[in-house]
Amino acid sequence: MTNNQALFSSYTFSNGVTLKNRMVMAPMTNFSSNPDGTVSDAELAYYARRSAGVSMVITACAYVTANGKGFPGEFGADTDEMIPSLTRLATTIKEQGAKAILQIFHGGRMCPPDQIPNGEVVSASNVPAEQDGSTVPRALTESEVNDIIVAFGETTRRAIEAGFDGVEIHGANGYLIQQFFSPHSNRREDRFGGSLENRMTFPLAIVDEVKRVADKHGHDEFIVGYRFSPEEPETPGITMDETLSLVDTLADKGLDYLHVSLSDFYAKPRRGVENTEKTRIEYLMETINNRVPLIGVGSIYTADDAHQAFATGIPLLALGRELIIDPDWVQKVAEGKDDEIVTELDKTKQQQLVVPDPLWNIITSTPGWFPGI
Question: So what's the pLDDT on residue 3?
């Protein structure tokens, strides 16, 4: 089997769902939903343009409660009134031949006060993020924590009713689930804080609730995945060995996949392991030991990049910015047209690339977002 044949071979999850190839669209915030939290026509066009080549599309994150909205222009999944909006999104993606996965989250201390009710930012503890202008959050009560766990389940039910093929629990990128796992943001003294095991309580409770609801309201082929970030730069902060403990536990939870959040596929650990010359991906795959598929991601720009990453044994690869720069990336690789892949954003082609104005304005005015900018 050639490199390309391997990359475009099918993959079957343990629940029986088969993906047509090994390429996934990574979840990317697009800031382009309607003010009421419904999915906009511009978003639907953006997803339709990018859903034909990949086997699975993981959407931008949707908030599970009103006080979990993390961005302006983010779509909601916090009430049943959002189901028609979510249905439009799921249908748009599936019509292009990809599985549709709704990423569900709560922003916690990263929520802008002007985006949430009463401007009240909440988190595991009253510790602000180490960023200029960060709000000091209010620590959630134990009852509120339990309510949010239930909200993740309710959002999963809505995803099922809307026709999504699955959900991805967003436990990465410094948002609420990660805030409970992190010793930086979680200074609680109840069952949700303290020891490493206690800091896993909230993430694992959400996994259990999402799976319970999926089993009750969904079908055998409903996909449940979990995304995580491997480390934090803060001290105290999540270290690689702590993440390996979490991943080891998650690998036995009956999830359909795990999804690491990385900017560089070959990034190495900062701390917490003896050998910092091994990549994070290598450590993760050793820990998982084929119990659950891992989606890898990070700076995969060319066909060669994808082939080299896939050669590590990773079963699935996610593409993010590459699919904004070139929505036909996957089709070009499949057809052996590697030399036609666009690797730098052409600022004159917003309409052809079908990128909504809010996202376009951010990526064209933010240095470092894309090669060439």
Answer: 81
State the Cα angle at 256 between 8 and 217, rounded to 5°.
120
As averages over each run of 10 residues, the pLDDT of the chain (373 residues) reads: 89 98 97 98 98 98 98 98 98 98 98 98 98 96 98 98 98 98 98 98 98 95 98 96 98 98 97 94 98 97 96 97 96 96 93 97 84 57
Among candidates 204, 206, 224, 205, which has minimal Cα distance to 214?
224
261 and 227 Cβ atoms separated by less than 8 Å? yes
The rounded distance, in Å, linking the Cα atoms of 84 and 265 is 37
Q: The pTM is what?
A: 0.98
**Domain chopping of the chain, boundaries:** 3-365
- Where b means 16+ CB within 10 Å and e means fewer, 110-142 reads bbeeebbeeeebbbbbebebeeeeebebebbee
DSSP class per residue in 282-336: HHHHHHHTTSS-EEEES---SHHHHHHHHTTT-SEEEESHHHHH-TTHHHHHHTT
Q: Is 283 a catalytic residue?
A: no
Hey, which residues does 319 pair with through a beta bridge? 25
Are 316 and 11 within 8 A, CB to CB? yes
Q: Which amino acid is at 247?
A: V
User: Considering only CA atoms, which of 185, 213, 251 is closest in space to residue 64?
Assistant: 213
**What span, in angstroms and rounded, lies between the C-alpha atoms of 128 and 114?**
16
Residues comprising the chain, all counted: 373
To which CATH superfamily is domain 3-365 assigned? Aldolase class I (3.20.20.70)
Query: What's the confidence (pLDDT) of residue 332?
Result: 97
**8 Å CB contact between 172 and 238:** no
Q: In what helix (H) or strand (E) does residue 197 lie, and over which residues does it extend?
A: helix 196-199
pLDDT of residue 189: 97
Q: Identify the active-site residue in 47, 175, 226, 257.
A: 175
